[in-house]
């Protein structure tokens, strides 16, 4: 049999692989354009507990059809502080299950219809003016191209069976022993790591299996390696992100590595179970079917899809009880003393159950706002390079910004139309205070950032130290338990120079400081001046409403009326 390697093998295999991966990209992009913002918001709300995290990860990945995109999204949300490490681990577990839906769909024998369906949806995409319709058409076009690409690859790989040289090489890739099984797993992991898509690797394996190039047991072994190799993308995505984001990526890696290590010793037993289960899905995947006079193995993709689903579900069920252990172990990875500081990205006092009780919800907001102020004051510790302070002012500011948004959202939710005017006025005052606190925190972040970025001479450092102490002392007006320790001296004995005086000192440094140093100090003094203005504004806002009196009246309204008794000192009226 004469085989034209270029026309009969290279063209359909390379073209089919390209069309297959393009289809994956189109489908993922179309679905994400339609719903990724909603999916991200849903994930941030839904991933509150490990069980909810697994369900959310499964559902969202099942929709967007990309565990890679899902895992990268989770790593990004962890980096932003929206999702904590514990629920993130459970979401990643769910993502591994959700992606198996796509593997099952790929196994469907829809290849011949792929091209015509892709053509129909591409016409819709080209001529439609509605963006939503275009995104739907893009997703459907990608879905159709997946099948057409897989069909091309299968046809192009089939002639390899008639080439002894190729079969001799591929005969070494037989999962007939544990050594060869591990070799197949590692090769598949390497291929997946290079192309960043477990779905693409599994698609290639399905094509090789359907063409009879790989026996179905070996094809299943390759799918196991694809689950291992897909972890590389989440790791790459986390390289320049926060430590918690890196830990989420490490969770994905360790989760899949542990699963593979557990499954490999049980592989041949699971193959026997899979062979038995295949009787409900068409029969023995190793029996060829004649199509146009050529042998093909259409049940191999089905077996691969089933095994991939079984592996990820089994892995999740097995490791789910140990999510707490994962979190504790990963929390120690790369940990420093600075990380023992309180996590300010998560509210501590804003209990949704209190939102319906005005007298209890308002004190909760006040406590959380005070906590936000404490978080802002930590920027002074960062500026002084304290050992217990966070090393990255930007990361700490991100945490305070998330807390600020939560405070504003919670406080705004208290503004119900049926509230008395004085209570509405109090809520408005708290919203303004929260806004001023956020602005103050931003100014203090600028203070820390400017100090950390510059190396000062001794004379310039002296001015910086006085400026920081001045701001620290000013904070005591609104945060009595923080700042420079009160000196044991008469009131008013210790005073700090005004910003104008510090500015004059900076300008007169002359040769004792470079231009960059003086510029940094001047900018620093501007941030301190704004911070002090905001401190006074917060103090005035607190005094603008008699908060205690409003709360006392609100609490009195919530108390049920009780008839006084004789024991409480009530004097009975004389009988007439």
Note down, in words, how this protein is organized.
There is one protein chain. The chain is an all-alpha fold and 576 residues long. It folds into two domains: 5-332, no CATH class; 352-484 and 495-558, Methane Monooxygenase Hydroxylase, Chain G, domain 1 (Up-down Bundle), CATH 1.20.58. The chain is built from 22 helices and two strands. It has a two-stranded antiparallel sheet with strand order 1-2. The protein is elongated, with a radius of gyration of 32 Å.
Short description:
Helices cover 70% and strands 1% of the residues. It has helices at residues 5-46, 50-64, 67-79, 85-106, 111-127, 131-157, 164-170, 178-195, 198-210, 216-229, 231-237, 243-263, 267-277, 299-319, 323-331, 358-383, 393-413, 421-453, 458-475, 499-507, 515-543, 547-558, and strands at residues 289-291, 294-296.
Helix and strand topology:
Blueprint: H1 5-46, H2 50-64, H3 67-79, H4 85-106, H5 111-127, H6 131-157, H7 164-170, H8 178-195, H9 198-210, H10 216-229, H11 231-237, H12 243-263, H13 267-277, E1 289-291, E2 294-296, H14 299-319, H15 323-331, H16 358-383, H17 393-413, H18 421-453, H19 458-475, H20 499-507, H21 515-543, H22 547-558
Antiparallel strand pairs: 1-2
Helix pairs in contact: 1-2, 1-6, 1-9, 2-4, 3-4, 3-11, 3-12, 4-12, 4-14, 4-15, 5-6, 6-9, 8-10, 9-10, 9-14, 10-12, 10-14, 11-12, 12-14, 12-15, 16-17, 16-18, 16-22, 17-18, 18-21, 19-20, 19-21, 20-21
